[in-house]
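Collaboration report, partner site 2.

Our partner group contributed sequences for two proteins of shared interest, and the home lab folded both. The records are reproduced in the order in which they were received, starting with the first partner submission.
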Amino acid sequence: MDEKMPLVSVAVITYNSSKYVLETLESIKAQTYKNIELIISDDSSTDNTMQLCKDWCDQNKDRFVRIQVIEPEKNTGVAANCNRAEAACEGDWVKLIAGDDLLLPNCIETYIDFVKNNNDAICIFSKVEVFGENKIKVDNFKDSIFDYSFFDLSYDKQYEWLIDGRPQPIPAATCFYSKKRFNDIGVCGFDKRIPMLEDWPRWITLMEKKVKFYFIDKLLVRYRVSDDSICSGNKYKPAFRKSLALLYVYYQHKSYSNLKGKKNAYSRYITNMITITDNSFRWRLVRKGYGLFLKFFNL
């Protein structure tokens, strides 16, 4: 393998993505960087996503070093789908992309040029353009989430931001990372316990491993917000709210380390609540109750 042209795995994460997935695939095909393998991992779509992808791959197989299409027998959630895709990746570097987002033509080449000049970089982000057909939804999303000032903060401030309940500021759609070096430090896959929120737990895990987040001040990815998006601005679907509650249980409350047995007992209570209900109002009560619980014990 030519060290100047490392193999990059671009992995497309799909679920009922038929409306936009061909645009996504064409954006990967159009990359100025050539040494790419294509992985498509579906989550048991009920539309014709897989047939569209297979037909497209047959027509464009000569563009890529390798193509693999993964079809599970049942729906498992985003985190598990990302794990299937990541496990199939053979490249030195990995770029995950949702089946409705787009890579700008110079995306992969820009990342590779950056890592050549920054040997310590194993996790890199860039600017992202939020777009979609509904301008109100797009504008709401822009105003409610991504904040590039995060990358200018100290490690302590970044970690605090990720665990204190504020909106997650990292443009996850732009993440470019070394699978091998992630594995070397013990970051293997996404947390399947949180099925619809794959990125935030990984950021917290990486920060606990003292991994530096690098940032390229260039627009490299387009992130689509649509009516089908699991989250859009401040409006979350019930499955996403459930995963936010699970994030709180498994990750964010870990910073409160003095509660001991009482904390563990309450965590089990919340987990049971999460298991038995899909009611979004109940999630809000559970999360609010946990915050009051910590406040009561001065934690």
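Second partner submission, folded after the first:
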Amino acid sequence: MKNILILSGSPRKGGNSDLLCDEFMRGAKESGNNVTKINVASKKIAPCLLFLP
């Protein structure tokens, strides 16, 4: 059993890329793997800030 992380970047829920991720997830689960899917388009992601002294 493996742990699988799916990062979906599709901006449209239910779009082609999102559906492809769901189908991959279904097949991976059927094979007995642990699967987590994260929709990164719905997350607020900011760039790293570098502070120099």
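Feedback sent to the partner group on the second submission included the following. The mean pLDDT is 90. The chain is about 30% helix and 25% strand.
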